[in-house]
What we know:
Chain B: This is Tripartite tricarboxylate transporter substrate-binding protein. Chain B: Keywords: Signal. Chain B: Pfam families: TctC. The complex is a heterodimer of chains A (504) and B (338). Chain A has 504 residues and is an all-alpha fold. Chain A has helices at residues 5-17, 19-34, 40-46, 48-53, 56-81, 93-134, 143-154, 156-160, 165-179, 205-221, 230-238, 241-252, 255-270, 276-289, 302-326, 332-343, 350-355, 357-385, 393-409, 415-434, 438-462, 473-503, and strands spanning 182-183, 190-191. Chain A has a two-stranded antiparallel ribbon. In chain A, β1 (182-183) and β2 (190-191) form a beta hairpin. The longest helix of chain A has 42 residues, at 93-134. Chain B has 14 helices and 12 strands. Chain B has helices at 7-22, 29-32, 53-69, 84-93, 106-115, 150-159, 172-184, 196-204, 247-251, 268-273, 275-288, 292-300, 313-329, 331-334, and strands at 42-46, 73-77, 100-105, 126-133, 135-142, 162-166, 188-192, 210-214, 225-230, 259-260, 262-267, 308-312. In chain B, α3 packs across α11 (275-288) and α5 (106-115) crosses α13 (313-329). Chain B starts with 6 loop residues before the first helix and ends with a helix. At the A-B interface, α3, α4, β1, α16 and α21 of A face α1, α3, α4, β7 and α8 of B.
Amino acid sequence: MHISMSILADQFALNFSYLWLIVIGTTIGIIIGAMPGFGAANTIILLLPFTLAVHVDVALIFMISLFVASHMGGGITSILLNIPGNGGAAATCLDGYPMARKGLGQQALVLSFVSSTVGGMVTAGLSIFLLPYISRLAYYMHSVEMVVVLLFGITLIASVASDNMLKGLIAGFLGLLIGAIGADHIYSTPRATFGFIELYDGVPLIAVLIGVFAISEALTMMESSSVLSDKGRELMKQAGWKETWEGVQMAFARTWHMIWTSLVGLVIGIIPGAGASIAAFVAYQQSRLFSKTPEKYGTGIPEGVIAPESANNGCSSGDLIPLLVIGVPGGTTAAVMLIVLTYHGVQLGPRLFIQNPGMGYGVFVTMMVAYAVMLFTTLPLTRYVSRLVLIPTTVLAPIIIAFTLVGAFAPRGYMFDLWLTLVFGVIGYLCRRTGYNVVAVLIGVILGPMLEANVMRALRISGDDPLVFFSSPVGNVLWVALACSLLIPSFAKWRRNRAALASA
Amino acid sequence: MKLSLNRRHFMLSGAAALGAAASPGLLSSSARAAGDFPDKPMQVLVPTGEGGGVDQAARAFDRVWAKYLGANFEYSYFPGASGQVGYEVFISKREPNAYNILFGNIGPEMIMYATQNVHYKYPEDFVYIGSMDVDDSVIWVAADSKFKTIQDLVEEGKKREITLSTSRLPHPSTIGVLALAEATGMKVRMIPYGGGGPARSAAITGEVDGCATFLSTSLGLGDQIRFLTVFNNKNSAPKLTNDAPPVNQVFGTKIPPMSGQRAIAIHTKAVKEYPDRVKKLTDTMQKVFTDPEYKEIAEKAGTPWEFIQYGDAASCDESAKEFIALAGRYRSLLTASK
């Protein structure tokens, strides 16, 4: 796995000759990324007749462009409508939507696009030069280590619910319970499925995502005439190119923040089975932990948009590394790409970098070019897209409900999923009205099944010995880090109080 | 719940149309003139995930089958509960009209049928009309593993419990390993990872001692792995598997072949009500095996030609019943029930 500059130059030249294709791929990717229920995997499946028919370079450039753009597009609706386009964009709602309500939707969108681009480009660049080293991470991150990483994400429940801890924990545990529905991970024994075969594979995430966020948000929207506050409405009406530039400045004033949170995404993306949703939540949790003003998270601050978006896009390089280096897909989109590459006779795994290093490294070059292209195509649009929030809620809410219900139906084609989405819509609405945090519910639903699968697997490997969770050096380091991340906020608060008392 | 026309199908039809456009001449005029059936695309249900071994094999086969059948294929995926979700959906929600077919794998899915609480019956609700390959179960370890031979692994297994990853517990390779353990006194623990990809990854990265799976899905891993044994009486691809010996040859055991057969299932009701349609399906299916294009496509999809082998409905039925019997024998080890 040695990279030469001539290979890189060739790959950049190849990608520039296919710029038109990258523009098409990224445009499709951003649109499907922003639509709940649609994603890169099912779009690539739909377009298999195209990718199988064209030259492998064309197919690969198209698929990679679409894949990275879908990561970027998910944040648009999170910010403007509080409706994440996919699981990876769920954490973006936490600060993106409050920014939009304050009339800073345009800046938030710019922050999202810039941090996605920086995160995506930095991690793709690192992947090119450090591939032999970072691909080894998969050798150290097994079920035990994954349990601790997932616990990092789950502790975010306590953070997002800090205004009412009891209700937040109840919401989080409700999410975990919902996440436990379905066949168990070892023996496939169905649990709490109420006899519905549609629940055997677990509660579909998209139904929860659309129900708890989109439907309940639409119902809440209808209670007022506008998504925006009065002040926000005035700000939004005056918005112009200045706000776009302001967003760019906001982002680059936090360049290091974009970089380190994207690295969180890269590392988590490399772990087989982990994905953008866990990466975004963990990055948000870490960003809040190291912030001097953690209490401002959730109120609409730039860091709260940057962290999940950088990580979400940093994850896109990580997601493909197991496929390229080991030849084993780390997620569904990678699995579908495997079909195309295998059909074209591409040998993945270590041999790829010996026989065809240009193609192996070319994946990351395409990512870099695609992110650069997207920055130029998306930034000018923020001024117009952000005006979506000016639409009166009497028009916006029914459109949201209609479109997102299509999204709930599309992935599996079950009428059952539509009803389930509406049920979760009512649950989400009741949660909002009674002060139970819906993000806490979602964290439980997304991370709960992954946590359970890894706990069960680690126990089974060890012969049901609970001490297995403390048996690995990497795992133990992570445990210490987790303990510190739980204790540091309390310690910092205690110090602040003591300093305040001393000065009084 | 009837799903005769929905957005998903509309979109998939669009993809199929695009496919036809991208591959001019895919459907020959002679095939179209062969009869009224099929006069619309075939609906393929895959009970495992997108991009998995079955998906790849199905797409390779159907690409050539389309020429003889005169129809395109649209795919839907219903993974979950070791394939149970797909079969349940197929039986209860798909019309038995011979347009709806299921592309599955007889071995794992009949073991699942025998060990899980399913709501359908074999052969009353569905039958297999033909299979297209024989894929043997194997045990392999990472290339840097200390286990050089299957004897090394078994010897170690007598001292401590060996861990082997598998995609799902109801799998022929699981039964093969359990039978080997029973015969040799080796202690082994099967670790299901919910998919072939994660199972292979776990063995390569050293979370478990090795992997028990089908041969074809592991061939792409190249020199990252070392095959230790094959669960059949003969190793059908010695050059691709570092000449790993058949398990019975090493230990003198009589473990039956633990092979998967990717096969096409159809509603039993469709066989009774539309015998002419089913005949056309089976007749055209057989033609695929003599088409040189299929050899090329199957190998591109990762299945060595040595594994490609047509099996008729009777042989599929025989294989299905054998796996039901085997699963019954090891039921307590494959399920949560004690």
